[in-house]
């Protein structure tokens, strides 16, 4: 053998000796020579690490040359692994790996050596000897020391890949160390001799005892690391040691050190995620309780949250067992049916063959395990940490919602009455008794001598608000249960009492809870209705119970006003609308009237003439909600008789009157008396004075509701009215016309407002559609129909008299409106006039004669506006006023013309007969006024307005052609009528009645007037059959 230039000769002799020992080891192992093997092993261990014996230590410490004991200790702790030591250790690893089955008690020596090696590897003073002097210092440090240590550490780990055969010796070593230590461990009785022989007890019992009896954190964490390693690698092979393991892990949950709890929880995660299927049956319940203990510990909140998630994993395992048991039971019953054998319900076969095939399945009480999980979640649901209790609540309801179909009815009853309802009551109590004091966030530092705290959101800055968040989660979970399992829940024997408990809780949450809680309770009701009504799962009693809650909420605090209360009222309104939409088939007349009464309470509570929203040009939130649900309340075919109450209710809001549904109600009277006593009388926002026949003087519009609300309500009401059946429309049409007319009359006091414009457009729609209604569509009761139509025409005449005469074509404000606004107003006025003439007067079929006379007189009064002004002021009249007056005049000519007379000839003829006499009088007045003004001015020119009006009259007279009946209505001598009838030349008969006036106009100074008069005279001559003689 050649010596290495950097190593002494003795090194190679020692290495050679080690190799020889290796061959002896293998020989002894093959021959099973135990004693020689042990002797060789002892010799080999001496070569591994240079540890001074006790005599050497004592001599070093007591030598006179030593300066201080500390120096001696440093020298002692400085350990150098020579190449000889490294080679010896490698040989020891090889021997232990290959001959592990025959080492026996010699394993103690091996383990002591390995323990010394472990201390050496982790010692800051340990190093390996340099193998070459030529290698640089850095190279020696990195390559020599750490590479050898890495190799030795790897070998040390690989040695325990096959540990089962040596754990008896390991356990004995642990027990020996514990028994020799001055510690109360001696008082513990370990395990009986027979159990000690067991592999599990030999390995794990010392770990459990070591953790529970030693207060050193490092020792405890070491024991937990070993346990985690065993569970990860061999957990599925364990069986007898589970009680000890769970007891140990349960104790870890009560530790105060965060690292210890975290390490113990890692083992719990391994068990819950991977080991539930292999754990003995009797330990499953304890496993769930241990997980709950980690959820309840207060050291690490993340562990608590993860523990709640592990409980969800446990429910998956449990439900799989429940499903498997159900399948097994079903199969067994099928076999019984085939064999003709009967057993009692609930029995499951427990044959010897089945138990052998799956010994655990027949023994697991999955119901008990399921309730164990719920018991833990119920306790965590009352935890003082919001995150933990919220996670527990989510897990509990997620479990029920996910696996509810697999639970029996008895399990459902236990879940609800033992866990869910008590949790509701307990959490509600804790929320009501929790502190309302505002919290300050964590102190971040100081600024200007004052502490600076982390900001907490206002929705979570008190204990009560955080408890409210938990109640919101509870209500959300209940909503999910009602949505998914309501038909199943109805089958429970205690369903009625449970339903009453739930309704009481929801009612209390809405009335006494915070905004978030109240909204969650309302959402629960909405979810219940919307998810079950379309499926036909609800009876009318459930709908009534929901309606009762809404009604009670609105009756309890009708005058309570705040942003939170408004939001709650909005949700109640949406709930009302959704309730009716989803459960229409369950509503009868009484329920519908109750629904309208609840809506009226809501609208009444929103009355406030001083709302700032209205002043800013927006509608209050509650009123917006009202406007959203009103279109949803259209009665169904089965509730057709409810159209009239609905429309009358809406009209009361337009007219500022008390609802007919509550006019005789005791509650409303009491509320009104209280309001008067408190000085909260309703005030008028906008008042319209109606002048004309059939009106009642001053009328109030939108009393207390606000003009903006009425503006939005008018189109909604009109749309509902037009959708109503004809017979219902017939009875409600007079009130609708009256209400629209009052809104239109607001133009005089507020010409720039929008209400009158919206109402005028809606009035045009209603009156046009109503005039075209056929008698047959309005039912068989003709007397009621006639009375209703007479009232309708009276109201129509009232509206036109007030609006056209009082508002249209007039200067109503001293403020000059914008050009666009003025143009829009004029266009709307002309539209009203067109509908009045073309759609009402020309198409009417049943208007009474006295009403027709009022309507035509109304048109005549508007047409006379320009002609009635004196010559001094007529020139100051705005153009839009004169244009409207001329439009009315032209409409009167159109009414008398026979060009558009078709199928409705009798009705049109009646209108023409009423109109012609009024028209001829108006023409005579206008032409006479022109003559008078011309005479008064002399040579001065007439105002253009007067000239244009006269020219228009003359032109329209020339174009007008009358039918025979209209001609007979003229105020001319009878002989002329007879002559015209005989000659069939009645078309220009109206010119004969104005012939005296024409004869005076032939000398007018205005050329256009003279020309038009000449044309008219020629038409008269032609009508009389007169011709020039030459």
What does this structure look like?
With 1030 residues, the protein is an all-alpha fold. Among the domains are: 10-50 and 80-102; 427-439 and 458-587; 881-1029, no CATH class. It is built from 43 helices and six strands. It has a two-stranded parallel ribbon with strand order 1-2. Strands 3-4 form a two-stranded antiparallel sheet. It has a two-stranded antiparallel ribbon with strand order 5-6. A hairpin with an 8-residue loop joins β5 (686-689) and β6 (698-701). α8 packs parallel to α10, α28 (643-655) runs parallel beside α31 and α36 packs across α37 (905-937). The chain is elongated, with a radius of gyration of 52 Å. It starts with 8 loop residues before the first helix and ends in a 6-residue tail after the last helix. Mean pLDDT is 77; it is low at 1-9, 52-76, 130-146, 177-197, 326-339, 341-362 and 664-699.
